[in-house]
Amino acid sequence: MSEARGDNFVMREPEQHAAEQGRSPGARQSAPQPEVNFSSFILSLGSSALFHFGEIPDPVSGAKQCNLDLARQTIDILVVLRDKTTGNLSEDESRLLESLLHDLQMRYVQERKK
Asked: Which helix (H) or strand (E) segment is 5 a member of?
């Protein structure tokens, strides 16, 4: 099967996608992708929370907008991940998650007081 359709997307075989992008099927993208692991995933969620706190500008408009409800939702996702991964993380991963959660929760409390 070379193509599968969903409501808002079309999934293609890698060879077909590469051909559509003007690359040979075995060619890599020009920019290497960072390794995806638990720590990078957690840091990505942390960056998302910072974006919602208005600390990081929108990459398209350059504007900084604060949305505390979305920041709180991201913090809640991190709490669920912490709760569901208890006992399954390395010491470094656990420390990173706890530290990030603490920092984001304290920032949320400070932002709510403003």
From this structure: strand 3-5
